[in-house]
Amino acid sequence: MNTFGNLFTLTSFGESHGRAIGGVVDGMPAGIPVDMEYIQRELNRRRPGQSSIVTSRKENDRVEFLSGIFEGKTTGTPIGFLVYNENQHSSDYDNLREVFRPSHADYTYTQKYGVRDHRGGGRSSARETIARCVAGALAKLVLTRLGIEVWAYTSQVGELSLSGDYNRYDFDEIEKNPVRCPDADMAKRMEEYIGKVKSEGDTVGGVVTCVVRHVPAGLGEPVFDKLHAALGSAMLSINAVKGFEYGMGFGGVRYRGSQMNDVFETQQGKIVARTNHSGGIQGGISNGEDIYFRVAFKPVATLLKDIETVDSQGNPTVLRAKGRHDPCVLPRAVPVVEAMAAMVILDYYLLAQSHKL
Amino acid sequence: MNTFGNLFTLTSFGESHGRAIGGVVDGMPAGIPVDMEYIQRELNRRRPGQSSIVTSRKENDRVEFLSGIFEGKTTGTPIGFLVYNENQHSSDYDNLREVFRPSHADYTYTQKYGVRDHRGGGRSSARETIARCVAGALAKLVLTRLGIEVWAYTSQVGELSLSGDYNRYDFDEIEKNPVRCPDADMAKRMEEYIGKVKSEGDTVGGVVTCVVRHVPAGLGEPVFDKLHAALGSAMLSINAVKGFEYGMGFGGVRYRGSQMNDVFETQQGKIVARTNHSGGIQGGISNGEDIYFRVAFKPVATLLKDIETVDSQGNPTVLRAKGRHDPCVLPRAVPVVEAMAAMVILDYYLLAQSHKL
Amino acid sequence: MNTFGNLFTLTSFGESHGRAIGGVVDGMPAGIPVDMEYIQRELNRRRPGQSSIVTSRKENDRVEFLSGIFEGKTTGTPIGFLVYNENQHSSDYDNLREVFRPSHADYTYTQKYGVRDHRGGGRSSARETIARCVAGALAKLVLTRLGIEVWAYTSQVGELSLSGDYNRYDFDEIEKNPVRCPDADMAKRMEEYIGKVKSEGDTVGGVVTCVVRHVPAGLGEPVFDKLHAALGSAMLSINAVKGFEYGMGFGGVRYRGSQMNDVFETQQGKIVARTNHSGGIQGGISNGEDIYFRVAFKPVATLLKDIETVDSQGNPTVLRAKGRHDPCVLPRAVPVVEAMAAMVILDYYLLAQSHKL
Amino acid sequence: MNTFGNLFTLTSFGESHGRAIGGVVDGMPAGIPVDMEYIQRELNRRRPGQSSIVTSRKENDRVEFLSGIFEGKTTGTPIGFLVYNENQHSSDYDNLREVFRPSHADYTYTQKYGVRDHRGGGRSSARETIARCVAGALAKLVLTRLGIEVWAYTSQVGELSLSGDYNRYDFDEIEKNPVRCPDADMAKRMEEYIGKVKSEGDTVGGVVTCVVRHVPAGLGEPVFDKLHAALGSAMLSINAVKGFEYGMGFGGVRYRGSQMNDVFETQQGKIVARTNHSGGIQGGISNGEDIYFRVAFKPVATLLKDIETVDSQGNPTVLRAKGRHDPCVLPRAVPVVEAMAAMVILDYYLLAQSHKL
């Protein structure tokens, strides 16, 4: 249940304030050169403390590989890796030991397991996404060789939303601002907005849009394992995600079929769709067009405000504002969305390969 | 890949115009009395020809059980079942043999498999949901014994949308109108609207809302198999679904954390949340509150209009309007959403059981 | 748990005296012509009543396909199939309703499920192997195209055992005698021996040897899913099997490493092993040599003798000799061993394909 | 494919001379106190250098836990662990870089992956069993609480074999001699024999017998996942294993059904079998009697003799005797057999739990 994927899999482990976060990637194709700096760079994109609008907590998060790579190349055997946690001061969290924080997993973990590691959310902490970013970076190494590109970006923060189609934006802009929004002006506005929310000790949600380009037609496993069902499940497994839509998504329910259908035509001897309302997937299988989808993140539950709640005995208590908080998870969620998308696409690529005799 | 679930599983088979649609349910608990009429009734809810606003195609769809039930009770062994297809006149579909219909799976199946059964969409037809409804009805038999209720209803058709919270509605109203909307007035308006769309040979999309009540706290498997990730994947695997959101969903991204957090309090000696913006799931695990989510359906691609497209050689062609069409899939999608939700909840119930020593 | 395999899977269902035995094959490659007569012939090899030395019970066992085959070819979608049971006279088995037969699964099924279908063993009956033979025949259709051959034969019945290596025998001899032994003289002796056992109302066990030829090097998934572990599990899942060994097996434990090692040498520019004590698998991966293994079957528990036992209340009782019995399961087990081996090899072939970029 | 089990799983990673061997245990029940010294002790049982009859290679093999344990108890979240490899001097193995050792996995890994880590067998090394022993020790912690005992011992080395039934031996004797044989006299003879084989630079195989006591009736998943099929697969996945049999196994094929059947009777109000030829499993499900089985190990392929072979170009070459070797793997295999058995039994215990409503 801590394993993700079918043929390319990640098994992850680790608590926020335990000794380490890590994982095992299985099914990595053999013979792929591993650019260690690239992987560390990908991991750095989710790191706290990158800018003034994310949590200032200091974590170096250096990934160490333990197996599966020999003389710079993958061997096809499982790749074990870990990131040691630098902050294991459990006393910092003594105030949480007997308290259930609202809209966190404190209560539900206790209900499920009877016990929990209360330090920083333990296993339910978003630090677990470290393992996803490392595995996703490995997946991307393969996808790049196949010519497949995965791009994610912040498209909405609170009320501020990019209008129009992803095609309008230059994806090279994404990494140039701390919000990871491909529109420089909107990025500026979002940044200011997040700053304001932060100063109030509050948090705000948003939407990440993801586009996958040059996926070959024919990836997807009907009927239960449709490509978009796998993408949806992957995204919904990320902390704080509350919704997923692809193609026209929820917006498309207002349209007529005659408006929504993607009419085929032949261009330069190749069958293509005139529009792409379907989001690159039909009947659960990629059709060769861009795959695009949107992921909704709720505002982070940890505030820098006093919070009313109950303790494990059910007695009312107040959690005092303390430490640091992450006003908007979106900038750091972008690389996680990319990582999960990359893992799904590679997994389905391998599945498609398997049936070619 | 045609198997759904972990411990309670459905393996489905069958094409729209092949001999039969069927499946195998594995992991059904033993000793459960099987009410055959209930199961047939559940299956009838997805049947064409129920009212003037769904397709008038005539299919009796009688389910036959082949195994796993002995002297009226489940035996714990796999339950094989099938529904014979009455309509196997492949000649009706000769015009589709060499044509790729827009926004159907004709093109992608051909890309994936090299061949396809062109009759009525073959495996990609929504007739496959017959197997889901049967399996879901079996799951519901167990859930009912556990006191768990699953309710789905049409909450939006095109522009027409119910406002406000699911708590405002009387779920006993749902089956009283052909739209399966719990608000009688809105149901009337939706019915008229669908009738108009039908008369134009067009189709329209909508949203199904689902509520699951009395789920015990503690169901869900962090981190990749969060309860809502499983629900999302299940819903996204239904034909024509383009989006899934739970709790406040996409709407919640506009709020501040201080507005969204579900504050705990003690009522009658029990810890409860004052609000339920989370949708009954926190950290991927049920918290005992109502689970609710929304599922977006695009308008059906088959129109009763001439449709411009290409044939398998890429030559332009026109598909002539012919036969019948289903102007709005929502009313018949409601039982499918319920069925999938029931299977997920039972599956996760069994998973939770497994770790209690 | 009634599903076998990873990428090529069989989900089976059905009880001995229920309506039907059947299954769903998923992961069958698309575009394979299906020779229906061949499949029926393969199924007939396990049928009762083939000769005087197997049970004389009359079952026609006609397989019907329900999906996944279109215009004579596989479509890549799941293949549903069934064999209707002709004998459903449950009254024939009324004497078993409250009795636990020795060395059958009556007692353990009751312990596990609380209920059981007592008619002819219900789900625990070897009639379930019908589904395996059909799925195995489908797998063989693919293997044949890949040039891979699967041969099984009876190599031991009671004390009568073939001596020496499988290479000494002409496999075309196997189907020429009712014992399915490739040595005509030994077959004659075995046949007489089984006849004698039958006349005494008793049963006897034996060994099936299986040889798989022309498996390409490189199939197998270390470390837990070694190719021989999958083969062993497959064989041990067949009714009455008590042991599995491959290569030199149990016999090899007496040897020194210096005697057992398969020395490599180059023949006609190709690296080959001088001997094949390893049985074609090293480190869990095929090496291109013949794969061979042996499967031990205990004598069938059903005798044509009065049997001392207890009823479900624990009271002593005697089961009176009645009806027919199968003195030696070996001849009918041969096609089942082949079927399981074929499924494993195809499954691992597909797994190996998946990682070739 | 490097993951073992269904609900209690081990995902293992690591090469013989890479940085570390490790794994992730998922599905460990929560709230179990973890006796770290016990686990290290279990791991020490497989360590090289324990006695004069196993390899003298020096490895400390200290296990470090990284997650899933909090304040001395399991939390139900995945348990990551590792053992750092002390010996990473790849130059020691330069002579193997371009050579395929006979009856090792060098050739097959190269065929499968195109590349391999040649140092000490890389991933195919039996050092991988470190992960199994740690996971098995965790499983045993749970089994002990359930009253279930797992015992394995050396029952045969080369020609020297214990005669008779496991009931004749005192299992407390097992750990008192370096061979891990419960008969002190035979242990002495085996030890001398292994010493002689060692002095000749050769190796010898043998058999490990395993007995599992106090397993409750009702564990096992018909039809493909029979309890003994899972045990068999687990054992066959251990390096050097060539055969598995349970109950009367291969020996039982010579008997008549009338001799083999385990007649039920009532003793002290409880239904029991008078004999246990079945090995505690009927129809794939435990019946409450002792489960016992035997595992055949071939002689280790690495000799302390010059070995004739070919290099990766197919040219003849001779591998010169060098370093140390392990004349008989049996003593160190005993804890691995126990570990795998413990994992299977716990996994199936959890599976059985899941279906109790």
TrEMBL record, chains A, B, C, D:
Keywords: Amino-acid biosynthesis, Aromatic amino acid biosynthesis, FAD, Flavoprotein, FMN, Lyase, NADP. It comes from the Bacteria. NADP(+) binds at R46. CDD domains: Chorismate_synthase. It holds the Pfam family Chorismate_synt. Reduced FMN (FMNH(2)). Pathway: Metabolic intermediate biosynthesis; chorismate biosynthesis; chorismate from D-erythrose 4-phosphate and phosphoenolpyruvate: step 7/7. This reaction introduces a second double bond into the aromatic ring system. This is Chorismate synthase. The gene is aroC.
